[in-house]
Design a protein that fits this description.
With about 350 residues, the chain is an alpha/beta fold. It has two domains: about 110 residues, Enolase-like, N-terminal domain (Enolase-like, domain 1); about 230 residues, Enolase-like C-terminal domain (TIM Barrel, Alpha-Beta Barrel). The chain is about 40% helix and about 25% strand. Helix 12 links the parallel strand 11 and strand 12. The chain binds magnesium ion.
Length: about 350
Amino acid sequence: MKITSIEAGALYTPLHRPFKTALRTVETVQSVIVTVRTDEGVCGYGEAPPTAVITGETMESIAAAVRGCIAPALQGGDPEQLDELFARLDGCMVHNTSAKAAVDMALYDLYGKILDRPLYRLLGGRRRCIETDLTISVNPVDQMVADSLAAVAGGYRILKVKVGKEGLADVQRMQAIRQAVGPDIALRVDANQGWSAKQAVRIIRQMEDAGLDIDLVEQPVPAHDLDGMAAVTAAVSTPILADESVFSPADALEVIRRHAADLINIKLMKTGGIHGALRVCAIAETCGVECMVGCMLETKLAVSAAAHLAAAKGIVTRADLDGPGLCRIDPYEGGPVYTAGRIEMPCTPGIGITGMPTLETI
Ligand code: MG
């Protein structure tokens, strides 16, 4: 079997409500959908969202990277020689990790279909079900409390709350949410680089003193400030999770070596796909550092690729895979089933999506 073409199209999926972090506000999930075709008619599908403020990529740049560099590099390749294909994928251009992630997951989807196994089984896992949190956007505190209560009423047991815009007011936010949802709901905090190291220490200690029982604080300080994040990690007892600070396996090594965080958030759009994510997992396993698998604002295709990884690896102890839960519609048929916080892995081969939507030209 040979790869004959790699195509890119656009998909626009509306959200239930605007998604707001310390960095941006978004109303529609934009995706570049990649299709890898073979001479025997089997296809693999992948997805990448444009997250310019995080990876530097846009819809246009992702499509251009796929068409201009990646497709020519992979054309004619054997879809069962994954190692060879990933060497070509990483070697054909630097950066562009989301474009690479879309192609990587399409190659894994194709591989699973060729071998007739669900992806998480091919990756060595048997966990049929994983649990994800749901993200609560940055908003006035009353709305954040209402959103949190609605999520809990809908069945979510883990909430990830976006903060980082107003410093100490974030403590009051978390206090109001903890009071509303009670002690049995796990609360995570994502500052999206919004604090300085000193602010972070002050805020996290206040949360600890108030007994808010926070599961973890994600990326409290700017991505490049590893010294600052190490200082925060040393100064507080709440686990610190590195997100924007860790893209590549080399970044993961550096964060672990410098004790800059307790946990690592793996996202396929940062690692350039599952093959890069597996390298981060291997480093984390070696060093005994637990990982979360997260997503950008993605639809079920890309999130499900990440869910397969999460279901396969024991070092992944947390999942932040709420993209499909935030979308107003599911544009696909088949795939993992998302029910409130539960993700049930499919029996169908590859990522498991059985019906694709019509794509727009990009
Ligand atoms: Mg984050």
